[in-house]
Design a protein that fits this description.
Layout: E1 17-21, H1 25-30, E2 40-44, E3 49-51, E4 56-58, E5 65-66, E6 69-75, E7 91-98, E8 101-102, H2 103-112, H3 117-120, E9 126-128, E10 132-133, E11 144-149, E12 152-158, H4 166-174, E13 184-186, E14 195-196, E15 201-206, E16 210-218
Parallel strand pairs: 1-13, 3-9, 4-16
Antiparallel strand pairs: 1-2, 5-8, 5-14, 6-7, 6-13, 7-10, 11-12, 11-15, 15-16
Bound molecules: ligand LYAYVSCA and magnesium ion.
């Protein structure tokens, strides 16, 4: 008999991870990019997930791995062409997420006009916290996020700074990618992204909600 899947373990479901890029003007500017007029999207595979207790692995081909702290939205009810007014009914909850990015590889991809897959979608590129039920974040448009590397504050931002809101993103994405229960949307990072090294400890948090900690290791051959 099939057992019911539990949304609080969404990372085990094998669903897609849809990421929004340059959704904070301060981050777009720090990397010398234009502020977008439409959402910029890319994907990570489910093999990108890593949970606390397991390390973030630096791919062998990068020497500039960056952290990006982001609010993740966990989809509870799937849909296509979801109206913005109904979008929040499709949210089961949230997760604190890191969009680990091989910045040197991303820069190479950008200059060659190639997709960002090697820079963004490698194993362990999506560290995630525990599932946060929707009720625990009554106003997702006013959530304070922070990230420290070895106890030094690197990122501090608020979802109120997002260019495209969560309801808008859900509606926009669902117009051409059907959203399914268990999908995760990464909503973009505020400024302060920087490089991490082997043996670093990353600590990130959502103010008044939760914190999470990850060690960085280099992938062994
Ligand atoms: O365009 C760039 O140089 C970099 C963009 C990103 O990495 C976008 C994000 O992932 C983000 O803004 O969160
Ligand atoms: Mg990102």
């Amino acid at each position: 008999m099939a057992t019911a899947r539990n949304i609080s373990r969404f990372w085990e479901w094998g669903r897609k991870i849809i990421c929004v890029g340059r959704n904070y003007a301060d981050h777009a500017k720090e990397l010398k990019n234009a502020v977008p007029t439409e959402p910029i999207l890319f994907l990570k595979p489910p093999s990108a997930y890593v949970k606390e207790g397991s390390p973030i692995l630096v791919p062998l081909y990068t020497s500039d791995l960056h952290h990006e702290v982001e609010l993740g939205v966990v989809i509870g009810k799937g849909g296509t062409s979801i109206p913005q007014a109904d979008a929040m009914e499709h949210v089961a909850g949230y997760a604190l997420c890191l969009d680990m990015t091989a910045r040197d590889i991303q820069d190479q991809c950008k200059s060659k006009g190639l997709p960002w897959t090697m820079a963004k979608a490698f194993n362990t590129s999506c560290p995630v916290s525990e599932f946060i039920p929707k009720e625990n974040i009554p106003d997702p448009s006013d959530v304070k996020l922070w990230l420290k590397v070895n106890d030094q504050l690197r990122q501090s931002g608020c979802t109120s700074q997002m260019i495209f809101s969560i309801p808008f993103l859900i509606s926009y994405i669902s117009d051409f990618i059907t959203l399914e229960e268990g999908d995760l949307i990464l909503t973009g990072t505020p400024k302060g992204v920087s490089a991490v090294q082997e043996h670093d400890e990353l600590q990130a948090g959502i103010e008044d909600v939760l914190t999470m900690t990850f060690k960085v290791n280099r992938l062994e051959l």
